[in-house]
Design a protein that fits this description.
CATH class of the largest domain: Alpha Beta
Oligomer: single chain
Largest sheet: 7 strands, mixed
Radius of gyration: 22 Å
Strand order of the largest sheet: 8-7-16-17-18-15-19
Bound molecules: flavin-adenine dinucleotide
Number of domains: 3
Number of helices: 17
Structural class: alpha/beta
Length: 449
């Protein structure tokens, strides 16, 4: 059996790895347009600074990524993320952020009630949540509408927007709650209240000892590239890198120079690229793929001497799009992870994307760097001359948008695909954007072929 995998990001690589396991006789060919495998996973190591262009860690409450590391025998290369506070920039000031929502979605109400992030009025509204009647049906709505109904407007502006939706690189007002935080909607249905549901989850985790067992996030000591490098060395397949696929027709794969025939073709690509490849051969399917919107992002990473950086105990800060800032968030990478830069330096990543900053992304790299520094210097006294290392990068169409109705859109794609014998999809555009989601999707696909 001959199988083509188009795209050597984590979804394509994990598909190949599990196909090797489940279908050992299958002959695999992996195509990728770039000269290196890994897709969004890309670690840069330079002059003692280690930075990630894409994902910098993965969650363990969804087990597929950790499980893959176990299968590959590389759990000894993992590193926990340092437990430090997170801050939010509000009205120009850094305020400690109640991290409960970050750590497995178990936020104690007391943590929110003590927090300076929310007004008294906002807190009173939170306290009413258990008494708000549950929604009568399970129809989809935006995360903003869900939070507004349950917890009021401050939950939208200071929890949904800067924290929850930003995991999806999404706009809280269009992000589908059923596709992103289905557990929240389920808690409402099951317990009649989000806060009661979160409390029940917390007790369940406490009773099972689950929370204490594992760190909630892992990275690799030498960067996420370790996962890609290990996979590429383990996988038995023909790698055709630097080879963009131009079109797919039935089970024929066409590059600029050749046409190849396969029994199965796996599109491990962002949906908009799958749409381009199928434009002529399957226009209906192409149209469905193009219904998934994408947003772009950029980041400026700077290394500065510790002596130029004020005392700061946090891993960084997030920013609501309500705050009049031209940056989206900032991570102090050297506080979040160990060994990311020389001991006497600090490494900082400033995010310049976000749904509200898409227009700004049209500016040049130099203008972005200037904006990043101007905004950062409002928080910390950092000057251009302090910078000893820097790297600016962009991701065009980085984040698939799970807009309201996403589940139905994906079901329609899958229904249409079932009429195209041997054509398959996997990847972050469909059933979850995180690395564990992509890997779980790849494993399921490999089992099913
Ligand atoms: C900035 C950023 C930060 C993130 N942070 C995290 C995080 O901390 N934790 C986490 O779990 N997730 C994170 N994510 C999400 C996660 O990284 C992605 O969802 C995941 O890596 C996507 O993998 P993929 O294989 O589905 O797609 P991709 O990585 O996009 O791979 C697709 C591949 O297809 C190739 N390709 C494109 N066109 C063609 C063509 N015509 N022919 C052949 N090949 C082609 C590309 O070169 C690429 O290698 C982040 C994403 C971004 C952008």
């Amino acid at each position: 059996m001959k199988i083509a995998i188009i795209g050597a990001g984590i979804s394509g690589l994990a598909s190949a790895y599990y196909l090797n396991k489940f279908k050992p006789d299958a002959e695999l060919t992996i195509f990728d347009a770039e000269e290196k495998a890994g897709g969004k996973i890309c670690t840069i190591s330079e002059d003692g600074f280690i930075l990630e262009k894409g994902p910098d860690s993965f969650v363990t409450n969804k087990p597929a990524c950790y499980q893959l590391c176990e299968d590959l025998g590389i759990t000894d290369k993992l590193q926990s993320i340092n437990k430090r506070p997170v801050y939010i920039l509000k009205d120009g000031k850094l305020l400690p952020y109640p991290t409960g929502f970050l750590l497995g979605g178990t936020v104690p109400l007391s943590e929110i009630m003590m927090s300076p992030v929310f007004s008294l009025k906002g807190k009173m509204r939170f306290a009413k949540e258990p008494f708000i009647p549950a929604k009568a049906d399970d129809s989809d709505e935006s995360l903003a509408d869900f939070l507004l109904r349950r917890l009021g407007p401050e939950a939208v502006d200071y929890i949904g927007d800067p924290l929850l939706a930003s995991i999806y690189g999404a706009n809280v007002h269009s992000l589908s709650v059923n596709s992103s935080f289905a557990n929240f909607a389920e808690m409402e249905r099951e317990h009649g209240s989000l806060l009661k549901g979160l409390q029940a989850l917390k007790q369940k985790m406490k009773a099972s000892g689950a929370a204490a067992k594992k760190t909630p996030f892992y990275t690799f000591r030498d960067g996420m590239q370790v996962l890609v490098d290990t996979l590429t060395s383990e996988i038995r397949a023909e790698f055709r890198l630097n080879t963009a696929v131009e079109s797919v027709e039935s089970r024929s794969v066409k590059t600029a120079d050749e046409t190849f025939e396969f029994d199965h073709v796996i599109l491990a690509l962002p949906a908009y690229i799958s749409s381009q490849l199928l434009r002529d051969s399957a226009p209906d399917l192409a149209e469905l793929f193009s219904g998934i919107e994408f947003l772009s992002t950029a980041a400026y990473v700077i290394g500065i001497p510790k002596s130029s950086f004020p005392e700061f105990d946090g891993t960084g800060f997030i920013i609501s799009s309500r705050e009049n800032s031209r940056i989206q968030a900032c991570t102090v990478l050297s506080n979040k992870f160990d060994n990311r830069c020389p001991d006497d330096h600090v490494l900082i990543r400033i995010f310049l994307g976000g749904h509200h900053l898409q227009e700004q992304l049209k500016l040049s790299d130099e203008e972005h760097k200037r904006i990043a520094l101007e905004e950062l210097s409002k928080v910390w006294p950092i000057a251009k001359d302090d910078i000893v290392f820097d790297s600016f990068y962009r991701w065009e169409n980085a984040f698939p948008q799970y807009n309201v109705g996403h589940k139905e859109r994906v079901s329609a794609i899958e229904a249409s695909l079932s009429t195209h014998n041997g054509l398959h999809i996997v990847g972050s555009s469909y059933h979850g954007v995180g690395l564990p989601d992509c890997i779980a999707g790849a494993k399921k696909l490999a089992e099913g072929i």
